[in-house]
Amino acid sequence: MIVMGLLGAMATGMAQGDRPSVLPPLPRAIERVQPVEADPGCTLAGLTPGKPVPGTWRGEGRVRIIRPGDQVTMDFIEGRRNIHLDRHGNVVRVTCG
Description:
alpha/beta; Trypsin Inhibitor V, Chain A; four-stranded mixed beta sheet; 22% helix; flat
């Protein structure tokens, strides 16, 4: 009976210890916003580096918004602009393709 109680307590402790209840904070290096980069000839009027994309902004042509953690295909589409955002929604980089 004592053995059963110990095994039950160990199993409960292990199950709770295997997975954290919340994600750990990001390392400080990841939290820093990188300088805004733009491919030569690949810019979009109306976007301010380091600022959020305005809610009223409408891009011409094909535009793809890429947020941290988004899965992105590697296909190159001529004329498409990719707007890379940081975790706060600020523009980090604009690329073509």
